[in-house]
Structures are given as structure tokens and as C-alpha cells.
Amino acid sequence: MAAKLRDRDAIVSEEGLIFRVLGYTHAADAYFSDLEYAPSTVFKSANPKAPRGAEQTEYFKLYEDEAWKFLQKNFPQHLILHEMLGRKTIGVTNRHIKQTRRPNQKLKALLEAHQKDSLVAAMQNVLQTVAQHSSLKTSSFGVFGSLLHGFHHPSLSDIDLIIYGGKETHKLVNTLQEIYADESSTLSNEFRSDESIRSKQWRFVNLSPFCSGFGD
Q1: Residues 25 and 94 in one domain
Q2: Which one is predicted more confidently, 211 or 17?
Q3: C-alpha distances out from residue 198 to 60, 144, 178, 206, Å
């Protein structure tokens, strides 16, 4: 394959669609992904959570089955056969990749930037808190979501972090459990109770929101 991409790496297609790579098992000439954002020039959404862009809407986030319906109607070349599943799923072939974006590289650039908005500063605080309680380094992390693509809203966007490596993941789980147990900590587990999902529809049948041990 032209580029070795990892889980949560981003692909920008020829049409400007932004896909998020899913997992590490892919087709010979394509990456299975989900369509995360579409430019406002080709897709509109009435969902109040969908607009992305600090000053004006540049992209819309796609929710539930919007991505499948949108691609099926407008860009069917991004529905590719998944041989193991025996059906088509969302993905991007190598020849349709215009650009790739790496979470670890973007995180490094954000942390090294001279000017940081409130969201980047909050992200830095999270990483510093984790580093103070463990041997984990920022080089083991990456940032995805709107922060990766530069159209985050400092007051409204989430902080989406990924950690690389099995040992590092276990260290992070243990570290977060210790931090969450500390009542003086500025970080807390949003899944400590069902309050965070009480007004939402939990669609998973065999997965509890409380099984992971951490949530923020």
C-alpha cells in the first residue's frame, strides 16, 4: 500500500471528504474507514451538533447512517467490498487518497505552537496531569477529531486523544483509575454514574458504558 496508516489516522479524499481509519485490518488496496466530516459545499446537516468551524461552518460531521446514505448517493466509489464480511463497507482506495493526517504529528505541532487557545491549553493540562502520575510521554499520544483538522471550536469541541502501544494503554488505564480515585484531581470519570447517558439512547447491547474504567 502507498502509505502505512494506523487506527485514527485521517484520510482526505479527492473530494475533500475526511475519513477516519478504523483498526489495522484492511483490503489490499484500500483502508476501511468511517466518513467523519464532509465539506459544507457538498453536504448540509440540520443537526445542531454537526457544524464545524470556529468562525463559520466549513464542515459538517455525519452521524448514525448519514455517511452511508450520503456516499451511496453521491460517492459510491468509497463503498468497497469487505471480503471477510461479504458486503460493502465504507473505505478509501489508495488512488482516491489526496492527503493523510497523523494524530501524533498534529499533537506535537499543537504542543509546540507559541499561541494556544483554551481547548489546546486544556488538552496540554490533561497530558501533563497524566505525565505527572505515570512514565507516559506525550510522544505516545495523538489527537484526532476536529483538533486534528484545525477547525475545532475552542469553547465547544471535544478533546479526542489516542494512545499508541499495548503496554502504554495498560499504563494509561491504571493511571486514570488512580487519578479518578483522587478527589482533589481536576479530571473525573464521566461514566462513574449513568448521569452522562441518562437522556441519551444507549444503542449497544453487550457493552456497558461503565466497563472501560475511564471515560474523559
Answers
A1: yes
A2: 17
A3: 26, 26, 26, 18
